[in-house]
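Q: I'm building a small set of examples for a reading group on sequence design. Run inverse folding on the following structure and report the sequence directly after it, with nothing in between.
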């Protein structure tokens, strides 16, 4: 049995080697601009972590722990799923996770890794809800509603930094083949990016409550499945924008898109702007704004 590090293949893989001795992880620390102690003499990884911990402030400690988790996640994807271990995607994932923690948009998801209610995160004195994008961005929320015999519904809503509705779209289709949630959600994201590009928006935060799709976008790798094909199209299209953030949210923070995905009659689509918001989502839009007063 080969016990060498599966990434660098230079030494026996131990927790201590992985966290501080492997050159690949060293590149991650450099990319995150974290100085880590490299002196010899540690017998256990805990001793090293405690030593490093003393030199960090609170923000660096959070970044360090998220970095460790993301590095181990990527290592496992390489070993068990034959995914590449490039540094840049891991650094981007760490930065995005840190942003989500700070903005309070990390929700809970079911064991299947797809869509679940989740508890979300408490914000502003125990209240939690949808938040407008930061300055210079628009935020697009998408959702797909799939039910056998009832077709597939797609819902998309785009809002500005004040929470105002810029545009939205909904459609319900009859699926000849058995519909699949992840592919439908990915198609909604593609349509959202396509519309944003057409309207000239260059900085987009894309929010979805489908973990499978968000993970595929964050850790993009080519594949031959239907989902991979749509994800590939999304990634290629998003290259025309200046900035795109893939954000995973709890379903309760994605209520407007959810309502739209279940609104449109079979075989029909609707589009609207701030002057023609459907009655079915008006109260939900106002409710989202109330969290930010």
């Amino acid at each position: 049995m080969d016990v060498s590090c599966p990434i660098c293949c230079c030494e026996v893989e131990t927790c201590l080697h992985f966290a501080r001795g492997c050159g690949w992880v060293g590149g991650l620390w450099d990319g995150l601009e974290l100085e880590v102690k490299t002196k010899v003499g540690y017998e256990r990884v805990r001793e090293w972590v405690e030593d490093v911990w003393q030199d960090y402030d609170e923000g660096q400690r959070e970044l360090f722990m998220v970095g460790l988790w993301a590095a181990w996640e990527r290592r496992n994807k390489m070993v068990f799923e034959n995914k590449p271990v490039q540094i840049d995607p891991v650094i981007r994932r760490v930065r995005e996770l840190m942003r989500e923690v700070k903005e309070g948009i990390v929700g809970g998801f079911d064991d299947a890794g797809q869509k679940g209610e989740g508890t979300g995160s408490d914000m502003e004195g125990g209240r939690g809800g949808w938040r407008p994008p930061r300055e210079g961005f628009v935020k697009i929320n998408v959702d797909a509603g799939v039910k056998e015999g009832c077709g597939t519904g797609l819902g998309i809503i785009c809002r500005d930094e004040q929470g105002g509705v810029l545009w939205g779209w909904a459609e319900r289709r009859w699926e000849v083949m058995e519909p699949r949630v992840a592919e439908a959600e990915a198609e909604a994201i593609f349509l959202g990016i396509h519309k944003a590009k057409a309207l000239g928006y260059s900085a987009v935060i894309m929010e979805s409550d489908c973990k499978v799709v968000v993970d595929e976008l964050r850790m993009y790798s080519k594949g031959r499945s239907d989902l991979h094909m749509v994800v590939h199209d999304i990634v290629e299209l998003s290259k025309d924008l200046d900035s795109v953030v893939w954000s995973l949210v709890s379903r309760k923070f994605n209520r407007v898109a959810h309502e739209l995905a279940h609104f449109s009659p079979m075989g029909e689509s609707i589009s609207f702007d701030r002057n023609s918001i459907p009655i079915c989502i008006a109260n939900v839009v106002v409710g989202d704004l109330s969290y930010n007063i």
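The chain has two domains: 15-103, 138-290.
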